[in-house]
Fold these 3 entries.
Entry 1:
Amino acid sequence: MTFPRNDGFSQFAQCFHALGDNIERVVKGKRDTVELALTCLFAEGHLLIEDVPGTGKTTLARCLASSIEAGFARVQFTPDLLPSDITGVTVYRQNTGTFEFLPGPVFANIVLGDEINRASPKTQSALLEVMEERRVTADGKTHPVPRPFMVLATQNSVDMGGTYQLPEAQLDRFLMRVTVGYPDHASEVAVLTGAAASTTPESLSTIATAQHVAGFIQVASQVQVAEPLYDYLVRVVAATRSLPDVRLGASPRGSIALLRAIRVRAASQSRVYAVPEDVKALAGHVLAHRLILTPEAELSGRTSADVIAEVLATVPVPQGGGARV
């Protein structure tokens, strides 16, 4: 796709919504979830998609990869998967008498980790380390992964037998955790119609290249954030640490993740500045999976989403919306 010569934010918004429209040709009726995935992409974050089987978790990831002309790799996580199966391995070449590093699937722009909770903690840690460091070290040599780089991991919320739940410290590596959910009646009919017409992730058009995405990541990073909005964002995150129902609140990493996400949301709406509504729209998706509730709160049926909603309802919004820079 050719983007017209215009200011960077208009081009960003055009690309963002063109990608959303393209993915929605297959993933019907889930525009909000699609846009959250795109927000993760342009915020240089990683996405955990958690839901019951058959709701389109893997399909969403494949559609995103098909819409971008970039390297894509899929890893099916199983109990016998080894860390080297993800990161790569060093082999000895007898004909040259040298050692050569063979990159694993993690050396792609978009990496789909299917059913990440079915692999051992050691293998999970190998992927999560690359997500954080964006490089692999083998035999004393550092091998950077390509940019842009995004991991989309899926896990089922049922059939947990023989799985290894991601520890909270590792969940923190994901910028967002989302659910897809069941489609409504009209959307499910559209899914069947699309399947009959052979509309698959592989049949989608390419909307942008890896170079486009890298350039738009830089555009999003230039969104202006006023001092009052910085203050508001930090107050929201800090409030998660002081509630009696929360055993562990969001860390400064959560603040940084939320900042990156709100910049992308502003740019997707052709705005050069962020506003409190951006924080309110994304706080739940960025922060909820970083909280650990007390056992009493969990037994009473309280969720992390409830905590974030309470925080947003009680933390005062800055005067003037915090948009002035």
Note: The first strand starts at residue 47 and ends at 51.
Entry 2:
Amino acid sequence: MRKIAVAVSALLLLAGAGFPAASGAQTPEPQAAELDEVVVLARRSGAPMWTVTRGDTTLILVGAITGIPRDLAWRPDDLEAAAARSDQILTPQEGRASFSDVLRVIWRIRTIARMPNGQTSADYLTPDWQARLETVMADERNEDWRNKSLLILGFDLMQDKAGYAARRGGDDAMDVIRRAARRARVSVRPVGTVRGDELIDSLITAPQSAHVPCVQAAIAAAEQGPEAARERAEDWRALRVADVVASPIDRALNECWPWGDPEIAPQLRQQWAAAIETAMISPGVTMGVAPIRLLADEGGVLDGLKARGFEVVGPEWK
């Protein structure tokens, strides 16, 4: 049950709502100076960030990751300052789950967490991938993993074998920005919502075969060992964006639920695209905190902005 809660909570993010009052400044000089200061803070921050400016509109995109080890230090000061001086902050989607949705998860927990009776991972993986899985799991004390659903097996491989701890790690960019926004009373809102019944349906109705890409990617991450998550976080801290996107952990997260779900993932991407489009025509400074792969992957947000002729200032992402 704990692993299901971890999976579902990936989208159940609490975010503030509303927009800040319009600025009362009357002269352009202070506005320009303040805008320049926010942009400078963003560019020297200890997290991958990009700025796009058009007229009196500035968009700051923060490439966020989860699962940063507790003992991995990075420089959040300038990120905090940039967040506090933004006019609004966009965060990842939140899931709207009702009490009945939670009851459905509890009622169907076996469907989500376990294989159909008599089946194992070998019924879905090719002999080569099954052999690689057997090698990764060779030191397990029992054979319980063979009967776990491929969805849960994928999460277990990332957590137990590749060192990825989404909810037990140190502060990430989203944590830092939320605190800074609360202190500065900056408006924070999710770019969209996903209905709880849709999330639960995707967990309950997807066939085991739909999770094969997730497990394969998780096996590849597990083969890198418990340092895989740390290496990804160190690349993120050092602004080696292409290495983060190419990391086995990041690839696995992209293949697993919800980003690997054919129904949910398009909603997430479309909502981000719409929010960024609105931000680009809104005066002032908008900060968007998005998964780094969504921004920097081939054909992602940054590629799209550059293709439209915008100057995207920040670390290399290819």
Note: Confidence is low (pLDDT under 50) at residues 1-33.
Entry 3:
Amino acid sequence: MNEIRVDAVYQASSEPTVGRMCDIEPALAAKPLTTAVGAFDVVLAFPKFEGRLPAEGYPGWSGDDSTPVALSPTYFTAHTVFALPPGLDEHVVQAELKAAIAAIRFAAARLSDALRVEQPSVGMVGHIPKVLSLTATNITQGLKLAVPEPLNPGYPMVRGLPALTVDKATSALRDGVLPARALLSQARYLTQSTNSPQPGTAILLAAVAAETYAKESLKSCRPPGSTPSLRSLQEKHGTAVDLYGPIAKAVIGRSLEHDEPALWSDLGALFSARNKMAHRLRTPTHPDARRLVVAAMKAMDWLG
């Protein structure tokens, strides 16, 4: 068996300047953290600190030089080691490397989230931390391997979007943009058009946009005093995705569940991802977030 090791170095704070850097207790600088992500054991660690300042990787600290109470790291590392049989097809090796990198990114995002919950000034929870380096090595043979992933996830070129019209410009100047559409636009930007994707934030924005848009659209279709009321329909069915299913069926006579089952499934996955992000801080992957944000857009377009 060949042992493969993947190493990554992450920027610890969104703003790598003294005063905007994160702080950790000195004990954490000497404590590697291990977490299981799927089939991979990922080890994360801040730079080693041997009790003396200045120390490499720590340009700032709090407290006395001899007994600091907090250290400001510029980076943290993450690595995983896994075994592969010799002689595998290159495509299989690359697929395993991609899976290992995805596991490392997941673990790094969680460690970064822990910092940002305690210290919001160093970045927003759900943002993917910036990768400074990413390497893969066959440590059995002492060979460097080609890494099948970019340092930081990029984004495709987006073409064919509608041009701004006179009517849209005039409406925005007069009334402002529709809040739900504005939120969805922000979610699309955070998954489609930035080299610093923010999948967790995008999922939250897209879910709020889809839910708010459905409520407002269906309310405008429901004459005052109608029975059953939109409120009673929501109390009966309960979940946000039902606004596009049985509630829409009752109000406008059609259902996304019936019209476009695949889109209905993706919309349900969007609200499920929102709940995991909101209740468990479980950040979705960038590709999943991009797909689910597009699902929100298509569902809103279906509703009209």
Note: The chain is about 45% helix and 15% strand.
